Amino acid sequence: MKESSRKQGAPSPCAACKLLRRRCAEDCVFAPYFPADEPHKFASVHKVFGASNVNKMLQELPEHHRGDAVSSMVYEANARVRDPVYGCVGAISSLQQQIDMLQAQLALAQAEVVHLRMRQLSSTANYNTPENASPSSRGRQPHHAKSHFNMDMAMEEANVDDSFWP
Ligand SMILES: [Zn+2]
């Protein structure tokens, strides 16, 4: 009996059990996620959440979700250690700012695309009147240029226009 119980305790304990100075049972809930060679993972999670809370959270989850939960807790704990006030909220809000900035840039780029398309369409529509101002001087305000377009020409080109403006 003594021999077998000694054998059970022989394998090196997981990082959690080592830190908590307890025997690492074969069905230890921490062992699969906190290997002995990564002691810092459990150290920060224990510091921020507490070992018994981590234990409780893992017990409540189906096994196939535990790995993700542990990565999430380790990430959150490390963020909280780095930034005790905001934790990972600091990272989230800085990413949110980046998203807002990029969305504004995207909106500007899309507006520019629409602007350039309008300009291209209006210079194609004016194809028959090269004596008008050059496309570069006129192109800045295609709507404006079109509204001041010679009315006779506009009437002549009415059916051509239809094909260009779906
Ligand atoms: Zn263990």
UniProtKB/TrEMBL annotation:
Residues 124-139 have a biased composition (Polar residues). Keywords: Coiled coil. Residues 12-113 form the LOB domain. Residues 124-145 are annotated as: Disordered. InterPro entries: LOB. It comes from the Eukaryota. Residues 92-119 form a coiled coil. Belongs to the LOB domain-containing protein family. This is LOB domain-containing protein 4-like. It comes from Sesamum indicum (Oriental sesame). The lineage of its organism: Eukaryota, Viridiplantae, Streptophyta, Embryophyta, Tracheophyta.
